[in-house]
Amino acid sequence: xxxxxxxxxxxxxxxxxxxxxxxxxxxxxxxxxxxxxxxxxxxxxxxxxxxxxxxxxxxxxxxxxxxxxxxxxxxxxxxxxxxxxxxxxxxxxxxxxxxxxxxxxxxxxxxxxxxxxxxxxxxxxxxxxxxxxxxxxxxxxxxxxxxxxxxxxxxxxxxxxxxxxxxxxxxxxxxxxxxxxxxxxxxxxxxxxxxxxxxxxxxxxxxxxxxxxxxxxxxxxxxxxxxxxxxxxxxxxxxxxxxxxxxxxxxxxxxxxxxxxxxxxxxxxxxxxxxxxxxxxxxxxxxxxxxxxxxxxxxxxxxxxxxxxxxxxxxxxxxxxx
Length: 322
Description:
Elements: E1 3-5, E2 15-19, H1 24-35, E3 40-42, H2 54-64, E4 68-71, H3 79-84, H4 86-106, E5 111-115, H5 144-164, E6 169-173, E7 175-177, H6 190-204, E8 208-212, E9 218-219, E10 221-223, H7 224-237, E11 238-240, E12 244-246, E13 252-253, H8 254-265, E14 270-274, E15 283-284, H9 289-293, H10 302-316
Parallel strand pairs: 2-3, 2-4, 4-5, 5-6, 6-12, 7-10, 8-14, 9-15
Antiparallel strand pairs: 1-11, 9-13
């Protein structure tokens, strides 16, 4: 179960499969790998390859035999979606993970990074959250099914390391945002939901915007391009059985986040809060000492990242998911 920092650059000519390359994280990783000179990137959309279909996944790996894999594919959503469809979030994600990880082992994938989520930690975990707090308390009820699926993925990666000696690793990002995010009304996470809500208010000339909850919970946000940078850094510089937290090490209240979004979209009206709606976890701030000690730190501050995301949203609003 030992951990070590190494330096083993990945061959830019080796085949590299990004599962979920059209999603928020996978898309950012794909862009980064292209910019870094990777010559043999492999990606399949969900319509081309259903990762829940075990036979199809094994056939894909048999034909392509990637040397490296990032597993960024997942069924994701905000509080409403997770709370409403727990069966879907558990079943779909477990099947995706088991199929891809089993096929990757079967067909000799050398380096693999599994992406989880900070919701794996107990609802009332001490702050900031250290990697060792995993499985030490009860999960947040609104997304426990998704969290259990991600925990299963972490344990499968650890099991592969123990049983087969492969240098596979797992990374747990904090709340992510940026270009390519899901801005849908029912499936989005908090920051893109705020961007859409405030931008709609500006377009409609609304005088009041009402947000869910009290605004008091604290959240940490990481720009997805920083997340992609951290993933490549870990693949080339980290080998350990323990998963690695990826974040900024700083958090803000939801009310503060809402104010930043309002300012960046140019909303000048009132901001109110509906305390009858759930807040979710009171605070989620990751301890990122392990990642920083490996030599990586984020580069994009929150306001700059929100400003860029607002611009991207407005440029792509007509083609976004409903």
